[in-house]
Amino acid sequence: MGYDIERFVGYVNEGLLCSICRGVLEDPLQAPCEHAFCSACIHGWLVHHSNCPEDRQTVDISSLRPLYRYMKNDLNRLQLHCKNRESGCQMVCSLESIDRHEKECEYSLIPCFNIGCTVQVERRNLDGHLAVCEYRSHECPNGCGYFILSAEDIQHNCVAELRTDLELLRSEMICRVEEAKHEMESRLDSQRRHMVQKESVLLNQIEELKSQMSRLMSDVCSLMAAERQHRQELEQAELEKREL
Asked: Coiled-coil segments, which residues (predicted)?
């Protein structure tokens, strides 16, 4: 829906009015036939129709385009009253900046911050309401550190509340200790598996070295036997030489 034309100061060009709701264009879109509409209005129209509501030319969502720049500029320059005018706001500003103003307007209704309170008050009166709101909270006067609602003052028991907190902290600590324990056990188990694998590799390497050493000793023994045989042959040859 467009902006109520009664909010605007001065004359508003007919071309800046929505062809469906007849309000001043809000988030405008333009059909190929150059008729302009509020975005919400034309999307709602095209759910049940497939043509322009002004001249009945065929229109679909994909053919809609943003408003011409010069028309958009004319629209943004229009001056209008704040929507909270009846509540006392006298602000008049351009359409381009009206949303920003109304989000911060002191006359806008906003909900109470206190949980459970459904009252809406003007922004300028919020502090006064919070001071007397029945859902407001305040720190326990006995010094337990709790913030309590006025309605709960009679039921509030510092010792019971602190005991409950203590039990919650104890439970939380137990859970954290268990989590840390499981994490450490998982890490130790992982390291243990790694060490077992490494030990197996080392044992295989040792067995391989033993096998190589055994073969080497066998080769040494064979060489020593061959040397003795060669020495004996030399000695025998020396004896035969002497005899000759």
From this structure: 199-243
Return mean pLDDT, the chain: 87
Would you give the DSSP letter of residue 143? Answer: S
Q: Does residue 150 register a pLDDT over 60?
A: no
Give the span between the Cα atoms of 42 and 60, in whole angstroms. 10
Candidates 3.40.30.10, 3.30.70.330, 3.30.40.10, 3.90.1150.200; correct CATH number of 5-99? 3.30.40.10
**What is the mean pLDDT of the segment spanning 164-175?**
86
Q: Are 67 and 36 contacting, i.e. CB atoms less than 8 angstroms apart?
A: yes
Does the CA dihedral 82-84-85-91 come out positive or negative? Answer: negative
Residue of 121 and 144 predicted with greater confidence:
121
Q: What is the pLDDT of residue 164?
A: 77
DSSP bridge pairs for 137: 149
**Confidence (pTM):** 0.52
Residue range(s) of every CATH 3.30.40.10 domain in the chain: 5-99
